[in-house]
Amino acid sequence: MCLPDRLLKALQSLRQPSSEELERAVRNAGVTLQCVKPYLRERTPPFRYGRNVLLKTGLFEAVVVCLPEHVETPVHGHGDSICCVQVLEGTVTNRLRSPDAPEEIVDERTFRSGEFLHTLRGQIHSMYNPGPGRAVTLHLYTPPLPETAVDTTSP
Questions:
Q1: If pLDDT is split at 50, 70 and 90, which confidence band does 12 have?
Q2: Position 131 in a domain
């Protein structure tokens, strides 16, 4: 069974899940670096990193991100979506930003391969790969991201 089908099966009974329930679904789907390799994109312009949507339904969206060493995503929010992120390879630093001054980092935490992080509705953040090597992550959102959720103005 391919990865999008495994995710769908793990998510089928959820209607308004918490980020912890999203994490349980990802764990139940058995997501590994090996199974996301066919979906990896090294770079997706205008970004300096790769991003590929694996699955998008009326309730969920799953995205694989490949973040090169020493690259940071643009500062962005996810609108009304919550998100569970599984680090599959490397290390990422999640930098929470002030809603009133997005250039200001108010908290940061580093996650390594095998760990999960969660973002809440209305949070503004960026993700940075301190290295060494690339970082590969799986992001599971509910509801799916609005088209305007990712800031494309600063690659």
A1: confident
A2: yes
Q: For residue 22, tell me if it sits in a domain.
A: yes
Beta pairing, strands 82-89 & 116-119:
antiparallel
Would you say residue 108 lies in a domain? yes
pTM of the prediction? 0.90
Total count of domains within the chain: 1
Residue 39 lies in domain: 3-142
* Inter-residue contact 7 to 54 (CB < 8 Å): yes
Asked whether residue 152 carries a pLDDT value surpassing 60, the answer given is no
47/153 Cα distance (integer angstroms): 9
Task: Report yes or no on 154 lying in a domain.
Answer: no
Q: Which of 101, 105, 148 is nearest to 128 (CA)?
A: 105
Whether residue 154 has pLDDT greater than 80: no
